[in-house]
Amino acid sequence: MDIRKRAAEVVRRLKKSYPDPRTCLVYSSPFELLVATVLSAQSTDAHVNKVTTGLFRKYRKIEDYATVPLAELQKDLSSVNFYNNKAKNIQNAARMILTEFEGRVPESMSELTRLPGVARKTANIILYDAFGKAEGIAVDTHVIRLSNLLGFTTHSDPVKIERDLMAIVAKKDWGRFSHLLVLHGRAVCPARRPRHEECVLRDICPAGSALQRN
Ligand code: SF4
Asked: Taking the model in full, what pTM does it have?
């Protein structure tokens, strides 16, 4: 099957398995999603959700993050990996949003990636989950792994993988594509023991077919 048709078929089948693909991060505004996504690097969504429960109760507005003493924000985030840098980035992003974007999280890739701590992956998640827009495909560890297993890329560099995926996945599916792979990676295809026999993609996944033959 042609690679674009196979990508469309992967999306069609995974949409049936995961009808509402969204981030597992809990948030109630675009800025809270930005905070949660920045915190989630090198951390689990479950831990981030635990931390943000109290954080979002204490910090209600973007101004709160912009004006709190940095040491206090760092203390509030101290159970998260790399909290010193993450707190600095969150505070500087809040200040930039207030001074350059009239207090609103911007809605384009070029503006989002100007914010401290926001690279393409974070920007893609914010664009899709907060604004229903897609300018690319968020590439995290699950997407790196599954894209290789599915034969959609041979790269390990997220930028190259995103470029490969954007060439074969229909633009209307860019936003949901990474969520579908993340959900499938967690549910059926974890790194240690992919459950090929239960997988709805087994007949169109080169890795699954090869492993089944052995
Ligand atoms: S067939 Fe196996 S390797 Fe391929 S996506 Fe499914 S579980 Fe993962």
From this structure: 0.92
